[in-house]
Design a protein that fits this description.
Helix content is 26%, strand content 20%. By secondary structure, it is an alpha+beta fold. A 4-stranded antiparallel beta sheet has the order 2-3-1-4. It starts with 36 loop residues before the first strand and ends in a 17-residue tail after the last helix.
């Protein structure tokens, strides 16, 4: 109702041929919240698809190595946002069976304790496993 003179033109938009949206999309594991860290995970093969959905949008600069064996899938990945992985692990309990190296295992336990304190609950899934196979 406030527009008086509106000029419509026939225009088309074509992105640059070298433009790749995956180079610009934000992925939780690619956000730069710390220096790159390489992690080793062992996944329950029956829940592997959940993890594949998580890493599906990672940019090509963050390669992920996956080795599937019988009932366990081993993964090596590099991330600059380890807290995003820990958060995903809490939301998908039982998917990650083991996590390493040991420093990362310790960080995961610290993260779990911080989340329990923040939410004043022990309801954070305890079946999430750590590198030594123990429940935190």
């Amino acid at each position: 109702d406030r527009m008086r003179n509106l000029m419509l033109e026939q225009q088309t938009y074509a992105p640059d041929p070298d433009f790749r949206i995956t180079d610009y999309s934000l992925h939780p594991l690619a956000l730069r919240s710390h220096a790159p860290r390489t992690l080793r995970l062992s996944l329950d093969s029956s829940r592997e698809e959940l993890f594949l959905d998580l890493i599906g949008g990672l940019p090509p600069t963050r390669p992920v190595q996956i080795d599937s064996q019988d009932d366990e899938t081993r993964v090596e990945l590099t991330t600059t946002n380890i807290a995003a992985l820990f958060s995903w692990m809490i939301r998908n309990p039982g998917t990650v069976l083991k996590i390493g190296p040991r420093e990362v295992h310790a960080e995961f336990e610290t993260y779990l304790n911080a989340m329990r304190a923040l939410h004043a609950t022990d309801d954070i899934p305890s079946e999430t496993k750590t590198i030594d196979g123990q429940t935190p």
